[in-house]
From TrEMBL, chains A, B:
GO terms for molecular function: DNA-binding transcription factor activity; transcription cis-regulatory region binding. Gene3D superfamilies: Homeodomain-like, Tetracycline Repressor, domain 2. Residues 14-74 form the HTH tetR-type domain. It comes from the Bacteria. It comes from Streptomyces lydicus. SUPFAM superfamilies: Homeodomain-like, Tetracyclin repressor-like, C-terminal domain. This is TetR family transcriptional regulator. PROSITE patterns: HTH_TETR_2. Keywords: DNA-binding, Transcription, Transcription regulation. Pfam families: TetR_C_11, TetR_N.
Length: 190, 190
């Protein structure tokens, strides 16, 4: 499928994206997921269906794009005074959000309508940015810190793997345990 | 959606499953994915479309079921004489299969048509069984071994996370590195 590359924010393109995304969120909130069709989204957003097909390819790709936006963190990770506290707090919040009903649905949507893997890549980049902020603060404090990649591999990956592949519920202490392990025995993978 | 629970193997139910799975594989191989429809699969398998809808719900759920079957390991992990060698060899093969084009497609299918998470759970159980076999052999040899859960968290999860969420290709040495880390600094999460 040959689609236009995602336009940069600003101007008409950004307005179209904002109104289409808002239309998806509104229709879903009001009438549920089954009511989401390209014509319905287009009508609500005030654009033609062909604008949506041209830009997003199909409904599944549009839902993937909207899901990734919803997974974008709204603020930098809280500063709790130490690497241990910052990373634990961030990991708990991440687990809480991703393992929730809506979180699971967004992750699923993000992966589903994503033929080239770029939306999934954006999800991972959001997590990496947040971790980087936590580790940069640790470095300023003079604390020894693992690499971003080690935190992705040994804190983020296990949480996402269990959310996607293992049906059992996860206690918040699972996040704590992963953080403790990566801080006390940092794997040699920098 | 209320579907019948998956019947136990044996008898008519097993024959239906085998012929429907075979029909999916054949149509996909001959005519590509776009040719897969419930009526086409039913005709090839010699069943009615309603048999498929009743048992699998819809095409996506059928494809998920077929994908999980394809991800089922065909043999126990090779015995290479030591835990390190066995686990490294298994992890390399797992990475190679899952990161391949077909592997990625099966994982995606398995996750997508899987409203209750049971198919994804089967994928993870296959990996856990293989790891368990490797660790049991290590125990028989008197080797110190990590837990199955630690290997899932720190070897399987990072590989699957990167396959799903990070577009970059993964070298085989990535698997080696994860195994070395879990064997030399086993995380305190047994």
């Amino acid at each position: 499928m040959s689609r236009k590359p995602m336009a940069r924010p600003g101007g008409r393109s950004a307005r179209v994206q904002a109104s289409v995304h808002a239309a998806v969120r509104e229709i879903e909130a009001e009438a549920g997921r089954a009511a989401l069709t390209v014509p319905a989204v287009a009508a609500r957003a005030g654009v033609t269906p062909s604008t949506i097909y041209r830009r997003w390819g199909d409904l599944q790709e549009l839902l993937s794009d909207v899901a990734v936006e919803r997974l974008r963190p709204e603020e930098p990770p809280a500063d709790r005074g130490s690497l241990d506290a910052d990373l634990t707090s961030w990991a708990r919040q991440f687990l809480d959000e991703m393992a929730s009903g809506p979180g699971r649905a967004y992750v699923r949507d993000a992966l589903l309508g994503d033929p080239d893997g770029s939306n999934a890549g954006r999800c991972s980049a959001y997590a990496a940015d947040q971790i980087e902020a936590v580790l940069a603060r640790a470095a300023e404090r003079g604390e020894t810190a693992p690499t971003v990649e080690a935190v992705l591999d040994h804190v983020v990956a296990p949480m996402m793997y269990r959310i996607l592949f293992r049906p059992e519920p996860l206690p918040a202490t699972y996040a704590d345990r992963l953080v403790r392990a990566v801080l006390t025995a940092p794997p040699a993978d920098g």
